[in-house]
Amino acid sequence: MGGARYVGWVAAGLVLAAGACYCFYRLTRGRRRGGPGLRLRLSPSAEDLISDSYDDILNAEQLQKLLYLLESTEDPVIIERALVTLGNNAAFSVNQVMIRELGGIPIIGSKINNPNQSIKEKALNALNNLSVNVENQIKIKVDSSFLSLYDGHVAKEILLRVLTLLQNISTCLEKDGHLVIQPTFTEGSLFYLLYGEECVQKIRALVYHHDADVKEKATMIPKF
Questions:
Q1: Each residue of 184-208: pLDDT tens digit?
Q2: Is residue 134 domain-shared with residue 148, that is, in the same domain?
Q3: Is 49 in the same domain as 135?
Q4: Alpha helices, DSSP H, located in 33-155
Q5: DSSP structural state of residue 150
Q6: Domain boundary among 120, 140, 160
Q7: At what angle do helices 212-220 and 156-173 cross, to 10 degrees?
Q8: Is residue 104 part of a domain?
Q9: CA–CA gap between residue 125 and residue 186 (Å, rounded)
Q10: What domain range is 74 assigned to?
Q11: Domain count of the fold of the chain
């Protein structure tokens, strides 16, 4: 009889111990996963930041991760998604500054030379948003081959984006057709290219482009 009682107490103790262990497991698991125990949110990886389900505005640490990913990968799918995320975030003025301070403008700009047209478009979209900030315009360097993007035979999607870039810069620098901010026309700078005679001639030619959207866009750019 005593032995049975002893076994019963042991069994009860085991049940209680198991319950305590399970509660501890749930508590610590909740903390690790950001549950109600501690409400911790794990820092997303660079790959998480470019997923379709991630739509938060990125902070400096996350932008740095994304720029490193963009610089280090050769996967066209990842490059394109990273550029889309950066372009979306560059629509916010605070992130326009952060991307510049993190050295992101030349990293994004380098993708304009990518032979993949979709990547080229996404890079131009990101630069268009970044170019709304005047200080960012000085950092955009994109070499003499950049002017080839203004040729009439270039795909419409590319033409519209490079014309938008020029329009953004002109809008910031000019008022009533005159420069109100004197840009730095150092050789190799974006201003040196876009305000040079070769670019002027290309824009004038695009005014007569066969596509109505390209023609309208070229016509809207202030005269140099």
A1: 566 667 777 777 888 889 999 999 9
A2: no
A3: yes
A4: 46-49, 60-72, 76-89, 93-101, 104-109, 117-130, 134-139
A5: G
A6: 140
A7: 10
A8: yes
A9: 25
A10: 45-140
A11: 2
